[in-house]
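FAQ: What does a ligand-bound record look like?

Like this one, built around manganese (II) ion:
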Amino acid sequence: MSEQLQNVFQQYDIKFTTARASILEVLKVANSPLNYEQIKEHMSVKMDKATFYRNIAKFEELGMVHKFESDDRKWYFELSSTTHAHFICEQCHKITCMEVDLGKVEGEVTSIVLKGTCKECHS
Amino acid sequence: MSEQLQNVFQQYDIKFTTARASILEVLKVANSPLNYEQIKEHMSVKMDKATFYRNIAKFEELGMVHKFESDDRKWYFELSSTTHAHFICEQCHKITCMEVDLGKVEGEVTSIVLKGTCKECHS
DNA sequence: CCAAATTATGCAACTAAGTCGCAAAGGAAA
DNA sequence: TTTCCTTTGCGACTTAGTTGCATAATTTGG
Ligand SMILES: [Mn+2]
Ligand SMILES: [Mn+2]
Ligand SMILES: [Zn+2]
Ligand SMILES: [Zn+2]
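The answer part, i.e. the structure of the complex:
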């Protein structure tokens, strides 16, 4: 399994397991944030949800993964990149990644979630 | 009980009940968004949580109340006003209302939630 | 290469915010 | 007051995510 990932785990000083590799592989291929069920569907290996959530928590604390909540009360995950916003349409529930400029905000912003109606659903 | 509120209920064409009046009174006095438990604490009358959530849902669909989720997986409620952002500090969990300028965003934005570290907690 | 130490995993039980069905109570209108 | 319709309380339920614990896998270093 991916020589690349072996190194990633070494860098972050965590053990290499197929569960972890599998999660990261799915997230690497994904072109939008995914929730647990969606990631599970795309995974080659099966793993318990406890394992999934514990590993995702670890990835998050290491800064490898970013998460936010959509309007279905589920966590959505994506590989960390530059801070950007997520627009969630409350009608079609589609999630769109987008850049926004907040201007100056005191403190440090790590997550931006916008909700509303997307342009497709907007009458 | 408040003559004012009687009129509000008439305007929105919903029945006047002490439960509803009580919820709105708490929200009117509040100076930041509150969750169910917090609203309950500030309420003079007691009511079942089912009643609370059904009424809040009605208020929301009538556009009287706005809600969003904080990082504790609870809904926070406030009386509707102009669309503004809420900053949630993931360390002290304080919620701050603030104006932000998103620039141009396609579609209609009704909720803006920022998470991160507030200036007090920022080392 | 192997044994010990450490960390991860699966399972099942649990948590808790919010929802739902239903029978009883309350409000509006006449 | 009577009738009709809406709201309420209660308890059971839902479900995403969490936790404890025994077992299994990975790392290390001798
Ligand atoms: Mn994104
Ligand atoms: Mn606000
Ligand atoms: Zn949409
Ligand atoms: Zn803070």
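Follow-up question: can I read anything off the structure? Yes, for example: The beta strands of chain B are 65-69, 75-79, 85-89, 95-98, 108-117.
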